[in-house]
Design a protein that fits this description.
Layout lengths: L6 H19 L2 E2 L6 E2 L7 H6 L38 E5 L3 H12 L5 H10 L8 H6 L3 E3 L4 H7 L3 H13 L7 E3 L11 H8 L3 E3 L1 H6 L6 E9 L3 H13 L3 E9 L1
Parallel strand pairs: 3-8, 4-7, 7-8
Antiparallel strand pairs: 1-2, 5-6
Helix pairs in contact: 4-7
Length: 256
């Protein structure tokens, strides 16, 4: 392979080559039940259909699902007290251990082949009529960035890999409009207040993002794997809006 190519592209090439080679030697199998599959799939149709999708009623801001019958749009008690820089977040899936395990294996075990099915699941968020304008106007997909040190350790950004799959299925452009300007602590064990402080000023606009500003469309779609408190995507949305994007929506694979 051309040594002049960026390491990220070389890594992805060899990972995909290895995945295709292994598919020839060992048949692909469902990540949940183990059934043999055709190459390129991580889930069988039965297990795919069994994963819980987000459906109404859910909070119109963060996608938190609620039991019972609620006909009108509503904000959950948490979101009703907060002001976000994004219009809304639309997860495709509700929290489920099987989906979460696939996300963790993608991120921490570098099982890059799982990005295909996770991205395909995320595409289902576009069934939400609030995203019709974004599809019509071709809002760019903006993956939530990793700091370069974390990316160097992981060799890829899971949000980018999921975004690539979404782009293939929706014909939306993907733009690396944000970069993480300084490393932050892992958010997992932090409170919401600590998360906000941890992320303050963590993101900046890239030259690709600057070039997009002033063009049509005026909006962007942030993409991430899981929404938990919304702190990360809110800081990203704040950075995009300060730079000149007028509207920011968020889609994630799963609601945490």
């Amino acid at each position: 392979m051309n040594e002049m190519l960026p390491r990220e592209i070389q890594t992805r090439f060899w990972q995909q080559w290895l995945s295709r080679t292994l598919d020839l030697i060992y048949p692909s199998h469902c990540e949940i039940c183990g059934e043999n599959l055709s190459a390129g799939r991580a889930l069988c149709n039965v297990c795919d259909a069994d994963l819980p999708r987000l459906s109404k009623p859910f909070c119109e801001k963060c996608g938190e699902p609620f039991p019972g019958k609620i006909e009108e749009d509503f904000a959950c008690p948490n979101c009703s007290k907060l002001k976000f820089s994004f219009e809304f977040c639309r997860p495709a899936m509700v929290r489920d251990d099987r989906t979460l395990e696939m996300i963790h294996r993608l991120k921490y075990s570098r099982e890059l082949h799982l990005a295909e099915d996770l991205g395909r699941l995320a595409v289902e968020a576009f069934s939400d009529p609030r995203l019709a304008l974004a599809l019509k106007e071709k809002w760019p997909l903006v993956p939530v960035p990793l700091h370069w040190r974390r990316r160097q350790h992981r060799h890829f950004n899971q949000a980018e890999e999921i975004s690539r799959v979404i782009a293939q299925h929706t014909d939306l452009p993907m733009i690396k409009a944000l970069k993480r300007s300084h490393a932050t602590e892992h958010q997992t064990r932090l409170t919401r207040v600590q998360r906000l402080e941890n992320l303050r000023g963590a993101f900046t606009i890239t030259s690709a993002g600057q070039r997009q500003i002033g063009k049509s469309p005026v909006g962007a779609i942030l993409v991430d794997d899981v929404l938990t408190t919304g702190s990360t995507v809110d800081e990203c949305a704040k950075t995009l809006r300060r730079a000149g994007f007028q509207k920011v929506a968020v889609i994630t694979v799963m609601r945490g």
